[in-house]
Every structure is written in C-alpha cells, then in structure tokens.
C-alpha cells in the first residue's frame, strides 16, 4: 500500500504555526515587560522627586518658621514645629545659628543653662571669626554646638552657597558630617541647607551678620532612608541606581543590583534636580521575559498547537490510509480483469512497457502474441453470453496452465488475449513457432462448460521487440495486424508481423479513408467493358467496372480497393453507388437512343447478405423503369461457400425477376461444382489466370476446355475473360467457348464514349437492320 506524506505536511504546517504563535506571544510579552519597565522607571522617578520636593518643602517651612519668629525659637518650640510638620521618616533637622566671635562666650553660657550641660561648648575647637553652631536639633540631639563653619564640616561648600545665594543648597553624598569619628564610613548622607535671613527690624536684637544672615536650617538624611521612604511603593521588580552627576565624574549613591551589569541599552535613564545638584536615576526591570511565567502563554500556545498538529496529522493519516486503500481496491479492479482473472488491458499494456524497459537494459527480445478465438461470436450467439463468458474464463485458465511461468498473460477484451514472452536469443524464431503451434493445438481442445462440450479454435499474431515495435502501443497494434493476417490466411494459424504488413496496413487504412471521402464527393466512375460473342463477334454485353482517380493516391485499381472495401464494410455504400450509377447510365443511353447490351454488375458477398438487397434492387428497377433483362449480376464462387443456403434462395428470386446471373472468376476458388447444377446461373466466367497462358500451358488449356464442356453440359454459357491476343481467341473458339472479354476486343469504356465505340456502333447498326427486316 502506498502512503503519501500529507500528514507530515499537516503536522509540520500546524507545528510551525505553533512556533510562530509562540514567538509572537513572546515578543508581545517582551514588549509588555519593556513598557512596564519604562512605566515603573518613570513612576519611581516621580516618587523620588516627590520625596525630595517634600524634604525641601519641609526645610523651607522650618526656615520660614524661624524667620517668622524673628529667630526667637526655643528648643521645645522647634521640636513641636518639626513634629507638627510630620517630618518624613529618616530626616533630621537642625538650625545652626550665626554667631560672631565676640558672642561666642555669651552663647556658650546661655546654652549651658538651656541644655543643662555645664560642659557645653562650640566644637570643633578653634577660634573663628564667625560660628554656625547647631542650636536647634530634631530628632537627633547629639551634635549640639557643632560648628558647621568649622573646616572639618564636610558640607562647608553648601553652607557658603546657601548663604551667598539666598537659596537652598544640597550636598553631594557625604559621610555623617557632625563628627570626626567616622561612625558610618559610607558617604551616603545628603544635607539640604537653607539660609535664614531676618528682616531688618529684628536684626538689631538678634544675632545676624550685616545683611541679616541668621543661620542655616538644614535637613539631612541617609540615601537608604530616602529609598525606604520611596521604595515600598516601588515594585521590587525594578532595579535602579542613583548617581550625583553634578560634577564630571558621577558619584554613585546606590545600586540595587549590588554590582550586576548594566548593559548599555537595557535600562532607562531619568534625571532629577535636587536644589543645585543633578541626580541621575537608571532603572531596569529585574524581570525578563523568561521569568515569572511570562513565557507561559507562549509555551501554552506551543503545546496547544503541537496537540492540534498531532491530532490533525493523525486524522490526515487515517484519511489518507482510507483513501489509498480505496484507491488500491479500485486499482486492483482496474488492473485485474474480473471475468478472466488475468491482467486487464490497461495493466498488461503497462507491464509491456515495463518489460520493454527490462529488455532494453538486458538486450533481450520480447515476443508479443495476440491470441484471438475463432468464431467466438457463434458460441455467444448459439449459447448466450453467460456460456461465452465461462468459455473465456476456461480459456484463460488453460492459457495459465500451458504457458511457462515467466509468460505474462492479459485479457484484451472481446475474444482476444495478450501473451508476453521474453527471449534471450534474438534469432530464436523456431522456439516461438513451437510455442504458437502448441498454443493453437491446446487451446483448440474441447471445453466442458455447464454440461456442454464446446470447441473453439484460435489464431495468433506475433510482433517482436525490438524489430517491429519499441513501445507497447506499436507492438500490440502490430500483433493485432498479424492476427488479422492469420485470420485472413484461414484461421487456426499464426502469423509473424513484418514491416511490409505494416506498410500495407497503413495504405489500406488510407485507401479506406479516401474511399469513404470519394463516395461523398467525386473521383469514382463506372466504365464498361464489352463482352463479345465468339462466333458472331457481336457485342452481347458489357461489364460495369469501377474506376477511381483519387487526388492524393492517384488511380487505384478495384483489385486493390474492392477487397479493402469488403473488409471494412465500405462495400455496402459503394455497391449502392454502383447500382444507382449503372441504372442512371442505362437510362441516359436509352434517352440518347443508344442501344446498349445487358450490363453485368459485380456484386460482393456482403452486398448479397443484406436483407434489403432484393427490395433495393426492385425499387431501383422501378425508379428507372429498367427491364430486368438488361441487367446481369456477377458473383464470385466464395459467397456460395460461405452462406450457400440463404444465398441460393436470393439468387433464385433474382433470376425469377429476369436478371441473369454469372459466376465470376471460376476455377480460382473452391470450385465446388454442385452449386452450378442447383443454382440458376446463366454464365460461367473462366478466370483470366487460365486464359493468360492458355496457349503455353497445356494444363490450363485442358482445364479451360473442361470448364467449357462442363458449362455446356449444365446448360450454361461460358465466358472467357482476359483475352488479349488472337491465339487465345482461336483456341477458345476451338474449345467452343461462347463469349469473350478482354483487351483484344476492348478495354473498359467511359460512359460518354460508349455511343462512339465501334463495337456499340456496329451493334446499333445491326439493331437498326434487324428492326427494318
Ligand atoms: P472481374 O469482375 O473479374 O473483372 C475483370 C477484371 O479483368 C477487370 O479488372 C478488368 O479490367 C480486367 N480485364 C479485362 N480484360 C482484361 C485483359 O485483357 N487483360 C487483363 N490483364 N485484365 C483484363 P479491374 O477493373 O481491375 O477489376 C478487378 C476486380 O475488381 C473485378 O474483377 C471485380 O472483382 C472487382 N470489381 C470491379 N468493379 C467492381 C464493382 O463495381 N463491384 C464489385 N463488387 N467489384 C468490382
Ligand atoms: Mg466481374
Ligand atoms: Mg473476373
């Protein structure tokens, strides 16, 4: 059984669709993750901005608070205010009050009392012109008195900037600034500094510089606490790093990836302004498309498509199996003939082509035999088709049993079988002769079918590869021609195809085609050959002979085309044409006043076998008002052998009409003389092969003499045809032959020249004289 690959294709197609869908979904997920990353980054930036804005707002509120209270803010006041502000967690506030050196001592005394700390003093030590000691603190109380104008203060720069610019200043990340001790070595503290300037009216009493600078309000916080403030609302899936990029070299504040790679292009960058400083925030998603089940839809799609592909492929395979098994069943029916069980015509032709291929390769000869049963139709007609079919089946079984195992046998249909035999030896004709003879002998032995004993013969035609055909069609066609030839040779025999046969066959086919055409158009004519009384030498009749001049084939003799017309059935319309034409000429001559002796028309067996032959003849006689006595019909003796009984009756009826009958070409056929006695013939026409060498060949002379005597004894007139010279004429006259026909007297004449032919002229003159008498 054959398979096709459809199910593989279906599987591959759906599977690839699945892969496509999965990839598309992965891309979709990736796009989603990317957009999510961007959104989360932007959100984080906003939150950081908000937090820092809140810090600066808180700081400026504190500065405004001190300013509005004209610098008179107590520790408790300050703490309450800070508390009320609900400062962001992790942020510490301070106020460093301006102090010129001359007020240092007074300040220290005052603070010692206020803080209940007798050891209070401004630190770090050292005399400076101005001091900015931390005076108010919230919530971190430790660094009271730390002077942020001391050179040790790590954010001195911001102090100067805030003081000079009257604006908020931010530090770069620094370690905790109010101690020399590096409690926390990490530089992760940011200080926001805002200057406090008092209004003019309050400066007199307060500690200010000449322009009213009263101190610095600061807020410091740890980067981590800032992130703790912001990060809870930020997805843990977001990686980030923050840098102060105010200077040329970025100073990194934090990196949530803890040192993992930040590949160029796979993160988002955002910028923040923190007072005078610029921060950069890089964000990227910690989640790839391969994590957190983002791949799940893609995998699901892949699995679903794979399942569909398996199902469809399985289903397609099932369908294709059903289809191919059905196809095999049909093929088997096509390949094997149901009736005989042999290879069908189609299949054996196919096998023949294959064998030709093998023979070509192995340099072998192949014999193609067509075995055709003789007279199978008779069996069918006599016993019915059922018996006929059973006989065919028996013949095929016998063929299988008698032929060698390597022979290929097929049934061509009808009553024909094809046998293929491979032969090693090219020249081994004798072995084929033996096979064919043996086949004919064994196939012709009796069959017992349904209680009947049936006998049937067969004819065989052989065509050999490569000599006479290199493909199946040609070999079968040639074997067919050969079997036809075998049948023509008398059946129950075999015949080898040869090239000549093919050429003849081709010409015959051409003649048949052209003849059919000639019947429709023109090219056919009737000529008339006079028959002469050998005693009086008067014309006693004419024989109508067909003449055909074809545009392509030229002049074709009736001796060639009549047998073809008989084999192909063209003889029937052709015969009708001849009769109609002959009657028309008789009528024309009558009208022209030309007396023409009786016209003999040649009639083939097939014409006489027609059931409507007599009715047609009668209607023509009636149509042209012709006297039947002016008509003669010539038939060959073969017809009488084929179908003597029914033919005899017809001939009697024709004779009764007054139409005279001649037996043509006497002596060439079976020469059964019995019909001469029983049938109503008037003439016997001795075949021209006897006349041709009657003078030279004593045997032919003796035969001719005998036929003349026989004819006379049976009361028949004897006609000799083909008399070409005077010696033949004299001899025939001596034998007592009645009538002669031949070129010695006249060739066949055209219908128009009949009136001027001397023999016809003489006949008309004689006729005139007879009438006068
Ligand atoms: P056939 O009926 O025996 O006709 C006599 C043949 O001998 C004619 O040949 C004729 O031309 C030829 N013949 C006559 N005198 C001589 C002679 O002195 N020497 C030689 N060598 N031949 C002579 P054709 O016309 O070629 O006809 C051949 C055959 O064709 C006829 O033989 C006849 O059997 C058949 N035929 C011709 N016309 C018709 C027709 O109309 N119907 C039928 N059914 N057969 C026809
Ligand atoms: Mg004749
Ligand atoms: Mg003849």
UniProtKB/TrEMBL annotation:
Origin superkingdom? Bacteria
Spell out the protein name for this chain. Diguanylate cyclase (GGDEF)-like protein
Gene3D superfamilies on file? 3.30.70.270, CHASE domain, EAL domain
Q: Does the keyword RNA-binding apply?
A: no
Q: Where in the cell is it found?
A: Membrane
Instruction: Give residue ranges for domain EAL.
Output: 508-762
- Tell me which UniProt keywords the record has, alphabetically: Membrane, Transmembrane, Transmembrane helix
Native source organism of the sequence? Marinomonas rhizomae
Q: Recall the GO molecular function terms of this protein's record.
A: cyclic-guanylate-specific phosphodiesterase activity
Instruction: Give me the segments passing through the membrane.
Output: 6-27, 294-315
Q: Which Pfam families match?
A: CHASE (PF03924), EAL (PF00563), GGDEF (PF00990)
Entry keyword annotation includes Nuclease: no
Q: Which GO terms describe its biological process?
A: signal transduction
What InterPro entries does this protein map onto? CHASE_dom, CHASE_sf, Cyclic-di-GMP_PDE-like, EAL_dom, EAL_sf, GGDEF_dom, Nucleotide_cyclase, Rev_trsase/Diguanyl_cyclase
């Amino acid at each position: 059984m054959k398979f096709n690959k459809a199910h593989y294709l279906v599987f591959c197609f759906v599977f690839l669709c699945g892969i496509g869908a999965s990839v598309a979904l992965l891309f979709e997920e990736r796009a989603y993750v990317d957009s999510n990353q961007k959104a989360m980054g932007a959100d984080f930036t906003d939150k950081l901005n908000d937090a820092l804005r809140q810090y600066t707002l808180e700081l400026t509120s504190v500065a405004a608070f001190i300013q509005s209270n004209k610098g008179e803010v107590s520790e408790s006041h300050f703490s309450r205010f800070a508390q009320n502000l609900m400062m962001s967690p992790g942020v510490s506030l301070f106020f460093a009050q301006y102090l010129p050196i001359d007020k240092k001592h007074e300040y220290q005394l005052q603070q010692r009392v206020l803080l209940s700390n007798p050891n209070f003093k401004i630190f770090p030590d050292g005399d400076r012109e101005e001091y900015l000691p931390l005076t108010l603190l919230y919530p971190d109380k430790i660094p009271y008195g730390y002077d942020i104008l001391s050179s040790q203060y790590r954010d001195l720069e911001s102090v100067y900037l805030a003081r000079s610019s009257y604006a908020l200043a931010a530090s770069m990340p620094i370690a905790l600034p109010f101690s020399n001790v590096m409690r926390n070595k990490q530089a992760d503290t940011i200080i926001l500094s805002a200057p406090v300037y008092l209004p003019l009216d309050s400066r007199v009493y307060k500690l200010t510089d000449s322009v009213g600078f009263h101190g610095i309000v600061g807020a410091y916080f740890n980067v981590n606490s800032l992130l703790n403030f912001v990060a809870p609302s930020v997805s843990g899936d977001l990686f980030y790093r923050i840098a102060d990029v105010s200077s040329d070299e970025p100073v990194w504040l934090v990196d949530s990836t803890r040192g993992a790679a930040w590949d160029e292009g796979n993160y988002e960058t955002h910028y923040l302004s923190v007072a005078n400083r610029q921060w950069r925030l890089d964000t990227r998603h910690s989640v790839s498309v391969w994590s957190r089940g983002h791949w799940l839809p893609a995998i699901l799609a892949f699995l679903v498509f794979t399942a569909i592909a398996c199902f469809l492929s399985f289903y397609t395979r099932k369908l294709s199996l059903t289809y191919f098994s059905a196809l095999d069943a049909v093929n088997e029916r096509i390949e094997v003939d149901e009736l005989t069980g042999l290879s069908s015509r189609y299949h054996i032709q196919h096998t023949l082509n294959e064998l030709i291929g093998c023979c070509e390769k192995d340099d072998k000869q192949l014999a193609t035999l067509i075995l055709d049963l003789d007279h199978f139709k008779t069996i069918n007609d006599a016993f019915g088709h059922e018996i006929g079919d059973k006989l065919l089946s028996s013949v095929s079984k016998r063929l299988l049993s008698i032929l060698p195992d390597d022979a290929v046998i097929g049934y061509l249909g009808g009553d024909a079988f094809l046998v293929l035999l491979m032969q090693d030896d090219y020249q081994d004709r004798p072995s084929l002769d033996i096979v064919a003879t043996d086949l004919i002998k064994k196939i012709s032995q009796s069959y017992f079918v349904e209680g009947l004993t049936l006998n049937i013969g067969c004819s065989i035609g052989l065509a050999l590869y490569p000599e006479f055909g290199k493909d199946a069609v040609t070999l079968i066609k040639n074997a067919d021609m050969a079997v036809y030839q075998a049948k023509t040779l008398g059946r129950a025999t075999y015949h080898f195809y040869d090239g000549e046969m093919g050429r003849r066959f081709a010409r015959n086919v051409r003649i048949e085609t052209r003849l059919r055409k000639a019947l429709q158009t023109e090219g056919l004519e009737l000529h008339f050959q006079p028959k002469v009384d050998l005693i009086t030498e008067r014309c006693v009749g004419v024989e109508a002979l067909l003449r055909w001049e074809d545009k392509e084939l030229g002049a074709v003799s009736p001796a060639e085309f009549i047998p073809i017309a008989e084999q192909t059935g063209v003889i029937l319309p052709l015969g009708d044409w001849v009769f109609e034409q002959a009657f028309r000429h008789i009528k024309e001559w009558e009208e022209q006043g030309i007396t023409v002796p009786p016209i003999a028309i040649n009639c083939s067996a097939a014409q006489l076998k027609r059931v409507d032959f007599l009715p047609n003849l009668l209607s023509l006689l009636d149509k042209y008002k012709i006297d039947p006595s002016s008509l003669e019909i010539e038939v060959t003796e073969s017809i009488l052998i084929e179908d003597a009984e029914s033919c005899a009756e017809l001939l009697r009826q024709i004779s009764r009409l007054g139409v005279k009958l001649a037996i043509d070409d006497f002596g060439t056929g079976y020469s059964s003389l019995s019909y001469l006695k029983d049938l109503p013939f008037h003439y016997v026409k001795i075949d021209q092969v006897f006349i041709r060498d009657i003078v030279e060949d004593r045997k032919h002379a003796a035969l001719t003499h005998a036929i003349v005597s026989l004819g006379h004894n049976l009361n028949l007139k004897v006609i000799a045809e083909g008399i070409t010279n005077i010696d033949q004429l004299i001899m025939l006259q001596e034998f007592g032959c009645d009538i002669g026909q031949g070129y010695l007297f006249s060739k066949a004449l055209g219908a128009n020249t009949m009136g001027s032919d001397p023999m016809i002229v003489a006949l008309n003159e004689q006729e005139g004289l007879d009438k006068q008498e």
